[in-house]
Amino acid sequence: FTSDLEINDDQLSIFTGPNYVLCFQDDYDDCLEVLRNRLRANLSQLRRKSSGYLAYALTDVVLDHYYPTMAAIGDYIENLEDSIFTERRERRLLNRILRIKKDVVRFRRLVYPERDKIAEILRLPDEIVPEELKTYYRDAYDHAIQALDLAESYRDNISSLADLYLSDQSNRMNEVMKVLTIISSIFIPLSFVVGLYGMNFQHEDTHGHVLPLNMPELYSPLGYPILLGVLAVIVAGQLFYFWRKGWLSSD
């Protein structure tokens, strides 16, 4: 598992007989180097074991290599969870969540065949696989089950993480909409008052007489300051009402 969200996998085929073990793989750079070093050592007990045990040792090394990968994925998931609750979140956080979910699903597809192959080995008669060797394979089978359970747990965590991210995004959008709604509701009465006094009614009749009922405030020397005061009172009254209702709180 690399830092750029990629699981590097390689197919390993093992053929075993009474006194030989053949391995086929595409890349030499793999997790088997530890086992090769043990075989190169003259005092290694592995060289005195049967070919069936060597085949088990190859399987066990591959299974053990899964756990650092799952540990890295687990740390990555924890970092994603922390990123959701930070104020400065990455815009591509959802893409990162979906990509790691894809990697976990891919990991499960890699482990399933190995678990099934070990189960087939355990069902073979004792003439082919001795009971003593099956004891080791049962341990390998348990390791495969644990890896699958861990991957299943990670998949559930990632699904919950995606739901949490979408819920958090929805809550933040609701907060934005609340602010916009409050601003709009403040300007609605202001727009009404300004629009009311912006109507162009005729101030005088055809004989030049002033019509006192057509907006008499327009002839007042304090008409404009009074209008500004009325607008300020409307805004203050609305803000006080919103505050009493708790709509201005961020909680």
Question: What does this 3D model show about the protein?
Answer:
It is built from five helices and two strands, in the order ββααααα. The chain folds into two domains: about 10-175, Magnesium transport protein CorA, transmembrane region (Methane Monooxygenase Hydroxylase, Chain G, domain 1, Up-down Bundle); about 175-245, Up-down Bundle (Methane Monooxygenase Hydroxylase, Chain G, domain 1), CATH 1.20.58. β1 (about 10-15) and β2 form a beta hairpin. It is about 65% helix and about 5% strand. A two-stranded antiparallel ribbon has the order 1-2.
List the helices and strands and how they pair.
Blueprint: E1 12-16, E2 21-25, H1 33-40, H2 51-84, H3 93-123, H4 131-197, H5 223-245
Antiparallel strand pairs: 1-2
Helix pairs in contact: 2-3, 2-4, 3-4, 4-5
Label this structure with key terms:
251 residues; mainly alpha; Methane Monooxygenase Hydroxylase, Chain G, domain 1; 2 domains; two-stranded antiparallel sheet; 5 helices; 2 strands; rod-shaped
Any idea what the shape is?
rod-shaped
Poorly predicted residue ranges: none
CATH class of the largest domain: Mainly Alpha
Q: Proportion of β residues?
A: under 5%
CATH architectural grouping of the largest domain: Up-down Bundle
Question: TL;DR?
Answer:
Helix content is 65%, strand content 4%. It is built from five helices and two strands, in the order E-E-H-H-H-H-H.
